[in-house]
Amino acid sequence: SQELEQSPQSLIVQEGKNLTINCTSSKTLYGLYWYKQKYGEGLIFLMMLQKGGEEKSHEKITAKLDEKKQQSSLHITASQPSHAGIYLCGADNRGTSGTYKYIFGTGTRLKVLA
Amino acid sequence: DAGVIQSPRHEVTEMGQEVTLRCKPISGHNSLFWYRQTMMRGLELLIYFNNNVPIDDSGMPEDRFSAKMPNASFSTLKIQPSEPRDSAVYFCASSLRLGAPNYGYTFGSGTRLTVV
Fold first, then answer.
1. Cα distance from B103 to chain A (closest Cα, Å)?
2. How many CB pairs below 8 A link A and B?
3. Using a CB cutoff of 8 Å and minimum separation of 24, what contacts does A8-14 make?
4. Can the peptide bond before residue A8 be classed as cis, meaning omega within 30 degrees of 0?
5. What is the pLDDT of residues A62-108, one digit of tens each?
6. CB contact under 8 A, B109 and A107
7. B53 falls in which pLDDT band (50, 70, 90)?
């Protein structure tokens, strides 16, 4: 079955610094999603990537899906305390019988020091 | 729209008791998912429904877990009997359709379950 591995597992950065989170899939990705979760709350959808080489931005957050569609990176420019939380990548894992299994990566805990 | 609504937000129960978690998906969404989140295992898909029909329940850990979706606007996840290892945050999510929706899936705020 498909697995998503994120790195790093946790990250502490000073406010204003740039950072990158990676998500690597064991299989080709049909749709790669990025979510943010604040501690103790539900997941908030950030963006979705589907095409190899695709890049999308949302405010100061940019995500890219590589050409082979097996890795995505999330980049935050000039981080702020409001960026703190858990970032999770998710993917549609299509089964051979046509079923879908929406799986998630292990998550990256981000802390931004003011 | 109020989003995906889960209840209760917090539940503390004694081992052996029955626990029922509730979810109201976004109106018009055809797919509903139940997830469990723990520090050790992250987010795990338990079961999902499409058009009120359970499609894949392979993530349900044991027979103690059961889920129903009697209509398009309501779903329950039941644990009977509950055990301390069931303690986790349980999320419900819904989507307009299965398969790579461009807007992602909408998650509820979760139910934090503690079994003592």
1. 7
2. 61
3. A8/A108, A9/A106, A9/A107, A9/A108, A9/A109, A10/A108, A10/A109, A10/A110, A10/A111, A11/A108, A11/A109, A11/A110, A11/A111, A12/A110, A12/A111, A12/A112, A12/A113, A13/A79, A13/A110, A13/A111, A13/A112, A13/A113, A14/A112, A14/A113
4. yes
5. 999 997 879 999 999 999 999 999 999 998 776 656 666 778 998 99
6. no
7. very high
| Pairwise CB contact (< 8 Å): A88 & B43 | yes
The order of strands in the sheet holding B5-7 is B5-7, B19-24, B74-79, B65-71
Distance separating alpha carbons of residues A90 and A88, to the nearest angstrom: 6
Q: Nearest chain B Cα to A39, which residue?
A: B109
- Chain B residues closer than 8 Å to A50 by CB: 100, 102
Of A30, A42, A107, the CB nearest to B109: A42
Q: Name the residue among A33, A99, A107 with its Cβ closest to that of B56.
A: A99
pLDDT band at B102 (very low <50, low <70, confident <90, very high): confident
Say whether B56 and A43 touch across the interface (CB within 8 A): no
The span from the CA of A72 to the CA of A7, in Å, is 11
- Taking chain B, what is the end-to-end CA distance rounded to the nearest angstrom? 36
Token pair 């999320």 is found at B91
Asked if A48 and A38 touch (Cβ cutoff 8 Å), the reply is no
